[in-house]
Amino acid sequence: MHLLQSPPWIALKSGFGWRGEQITLENAPRPAQILYRNLPFGLKIAYIPKGPALNWQDEQAVRQSLAALTRAARKPGVIFLKIEPDAPDEPQVTQAFVRAGFRPGKPVQPVNTIVVDISPAEADILAAMKSKTRYNIRLAAKKGVTVKAGRTPADVEIFHRLSRTTAQRDGFAVHPLPYYQAAFALFPEENRALLLAWYQNEPLAGLMAFAWQGRAYYLYGASSNAHRARMPAYALQWAAIRWARERGCTRYDLWGVPAAPPDALEAEFKHRRDGLWGVYRFKRGFGGRVVRYAGAFDTVYNRPLYRLVSTILERRSR
């Protein structure tokens, strides 16, 4: 099960404008979680993030499951159902959705991510990183950066303040404080980490990572404008990898990077600074591999309203 299909994640989203519904599928090992979002005038959209859990090689099972989900989400006022499967960008996945009456939609989650294999020994994980990344991890320690686990509401507030600084500096969107507080509270302690990098008594950077069924996910990061040459972000990622290993995880998902094909990522990152390209430069150093997902697929129940809502959402995302 992907993190975004986990009960704590559905509980988190349910506190911020979504309502969750669990659908049992005959051909799936576990239920699919559908999220509904209310719009004005009694309208709704339906969304399945990183689900359902299917064997995408079994054409009949996939066809039956997608048909069942299409029926389940066809409720009064629902304009469309968007599904973003936890599936690779392969022709059979796209073809399965097209045959089931879906069309390619605009993704909500990153199409590309970087996944680090953290099953080897720590020395081997470090050896697989770029030499500059290894150097910066060691440099952070030499320059007095320490990483501590955040355990209190005050630590969540520190992380939120760092997030606002990051948003102002880099133009990234951040969640309000209650969102991070809810994520911290709803996930069991063994499944979430709030890590803060300190120099003396000053917080320099922070991250929130989550572990679920053998996989860890780095979802939220933040940093101040002070002491950036001390490389606190590198110390944080190494601490998060070690935290994930202690919880039995074998993969560490660094989350979003630019949506370009893998070959283009390597060809362009040295001279691109826009969007997530700087993020890719940082994340690639940890030695993982680029994983490209199939993207998003929409099945439409109300075509005129679908076009209107899609246009509005597109404008808001710019």
Protein described:
Helix content is 38%, strand content 26%. The chain has 318 residues and is α+β, with helices and mostly antiparallel strands. It folds into two domains: 3-109 and 293-316, 3-Layer(aba) Sandwich (Aminopeptidase); 112-292, 3-Layer(aba) Sandwich (Aminopeptidase). Strand 10, helix 8 (232-246) and strand 11 (251-257) form a beta-alpha-beta unit. Helix 1 (7-14) runs antiparallel to helix 7, helix 5 crosses helix 8 (232-246) and helix 6 (153-170) packs across helix 7. The longest helix has 18 residues, at 153-170.
Layout of helices and strands, plus pairs?
Elements: H1 7-14, E1 18-23, E2 32-38, E3 44-49, H2 59-73, E4 78-84, H3 91-99, E5 103-105, E6 112-117, H4 122-127, H5 131-142, E7 145-149, H6 153-170, H7 177-186, E8 192-199, E9 202-212, E10 215-223, H8 232-246, E11 251-257, H9 262-268, H10 277-284, E12 289-292, E13 296-300, H11 303-316
Parallel strand pairs: 3-4, 10-11
Antiparallel strand pairs: 1-2, 2-3, 4-13, 5-13, 6-11, 6-12, 7-8, 8-9, 9-10
- Discrete helix count: 11
| Distance between the ends | 31 Å
CATH fold group of the largest domain: Aminopeptidase
CATH class of the largest domain: Alpha Beta
Most strands sheet? 7 strands, mixed
Morphology: globular
**Cα Rg:** 20 Å
List its traits.
318 residues, Aminopeptidase, 2 domains, 7-stranded mixed sheet, 6-stranded mixed sheet, 13 strands, 38% helix, 26% strand, globular
In short:
The protein has helices at residues 7-14, 59-73, 91-99, 122-127, 131-142, 153-170, 177-186, 232-246, 262-268, 277-284, 303-316; strands at residues 18-23, 32-38, 44-49, 78-84, 103-105, 112-117, 145-149, 192-199, 202-212, 215-223, 251-257, 289-292, 296-300.
